[in-house]
Amino acid sequence: MCYEGRISAWSGTLLVIAGMISINLSIYALLAFIPVYLVCCSLKWQIRMEDEAFHVRVLLFGQRVYRKIYRPDEVVAVKFLRIGWAKKAARIKLKQGLPIRIENFRPSGIFRELADYAARHGIAVHKTRDYSVLERMDRTRKRTGTADGGTSPVDGR
């Protein structure tokens, strides 16, 4: 299955603000960072998991600018963690190169499929305590059928 993710708009906004502060809030600095902000907001990541490898593609304005295929022997470990208040993320550590950070991807089943991929190929998996709490909350929500983890406004508890 193919999963898609985007860079958060807050990341681009912080980039523009940091740039303006470093150049003394000049209007020309703002004009210089607007194209960078637009490029950051239009980047789209795609990850496709298969039995033999997983494929990473980066699209800019719908055109592919980067593509890489990672085999299981290139992956050292997968670390699942929590970001923000209640969002899941994963960091794939590679033998060579920078780690791949997976966050803000749709559909959300990417984390389950990534854990299955790691288990199939004997890749080390580490789940933080916060991530385990999020998994338990998700299981509780599915079991009870409520969005808040067990309480509902009908019974008033």
Characterize the structure shown:
The chain starts with a strand and ends in a 13-residue tail after the last helix. Helix content is about 35%, strand content about 35%. A five-stranded antiparallel beta sheet has the order 4-3-2-1-8. Helix 1 (about 10-20) runs antiparallel to helix 2 (about 25-40). The protein has a single domain, classed as Pleckstrin-homology domain (PH domain)/Phosphotyrosine-binding domain (PTB) (PH-domain like, Roll). Residues about 150-155 have low confidence and may be disordered. It contains four helices and nine strands, in the order βααβββββββαβα. The protein has helices at about 10-20, 25-40, 110-120, 130-145; strands at about 1-5, 45-50, 55-60, 65-70, 75-85, 85-95, 100, 105, 125. The radius of gyration is 19 Å and the shape is globular. With about 160 residues, the chain is an alpha+beta fold.
